[in-house]
Amino acid sequence: MSSIRTPLRTLGAATAVLLLASACAGAGGGGGSGSDSVNVLMVNNPQMLDLQKLTADNFTKDTGIKVNFTVLPENDVRDKISQDFSSQAGQYDVATISNYETPMYAKNGWLAPMDDFVSKDSAFDQADILEPIRQSLTAADGKVYAQPFYGESSFLMYRKDIFEAKGVTLPERPTWQQVAEAAAKVSTPEVRGICLRGQPGWGQVMAPLTTVVNTFGGTWFTKDWQAQLNAPEFKEATKFYVDLVRNHGEAGAPQAGFAECLNNMTQGKVAMWYDATVAAGLLEADDSPVKGKLGFTQAPVVKTDSSGWLYTWAFGIQKASKKQDAAWKFISWASGKGYEELVGKNLGWSKVPDGKRSSTYQRAEYKQSSGTFSAQAEAAIKGAKPLDPGVQPRPAPGIQFVGIPEFTDLGTQVSQQISSAIAGAVSVDDALNNAQGLAEKVAQKYKGQ
């Protein structure tokens, strides 16, 4: 959830930061009601804009189906999708949703299942979809309700030259304790040991922190909805995270998110960064000052075998749509192998929407463009466990989030407490005691269900 959950790998490093800062929107028309057209509501991430540009001359030319795009920034598109799909107004046939929304939307009856479409479309090759991604887009009834456009996990990025100069090494699967030791050894006033998100937001500080909580043995809720935010394991993980970023982290950590850490890493101000796999392509971009200087490891662990998060932007079909066949044809094209080849040949393999198909990582052209990080990114996604991310059973799916509607608000409120602890305005104990009260209120809604 590189918000953050954005495929900024497609841009140069400096441009990516400007894009995040400006939050520019691209918008298309929402009209078109003919049977030979579909209406698509889509987030304005760079790879989505590439899709928009390629559609008319390829998909429409081949199928005769016109695609009317409405393209909005993330927060706006989420609100609009929620309004249209919850009312089943049917204004939009297809929308971009993530693995956070998909199971909930399916449970509410807002999405059309795709299993029948998949079974009749052998060219789509559902088996090629990376298993954790497919699983995260499958609802409790066992049916698939969305198809991925791209996906990501999280891993550790570090400056090989700095580590070599200091005589410090990291294994391919380090523990968080090893990472903390390395951060202490390489940290200087000019180049800090590590960058970790501290900015408030359920998709900002809570994303990496929750993966740390998982592998330290903690959880937001037990299987029977007992809130656990002030439990020993959750406290230990949070104190570790807060201490690490306060002692060896970036300047301005309480307000640092994906964009700020990207900037710090690009400018050589930090020696390590734990964040989204999508960040690697930005750091290895041709215009990046740190290109060729980076090493990559799997997400650090403590008690679990893996701890990387999982996020995907995917396409879902509104159940009320009267154009489901045409909608599927568009999704099959946009999420298919042929589209990746189209992007690779026309825009360059560095712009391929990766992170969703096994075959992508076998392409020689992709391997050449993605340098040293593609194998680590693939392993991170394949190792993600959206239904079993910790050491105990969970009441809802999700690795870096809890798959319930209330989490956006709960996670944001808790994140404000954590950010205050990073700033030194409140102790971790007090922050988590406050957070526990918030979580208990949410848990009351689910107990006994």
UniProtKB/TrEMBL annotation:
Pfam families: SBP_bac_1 (PF01547). InterPro entries: Bact_solute-bd_prot1, SBP. Keywords: Signal. Residues 1-27 form the signal peptide. This is Carbohydrate ABC transporter substrate-binding protein (CUT1 family). It comes from Lentzea atacamensis. The lineage of its organism: Bacteria, Bacillati, Actinomycetota, Actinomycetes, Pseudonocardiales.
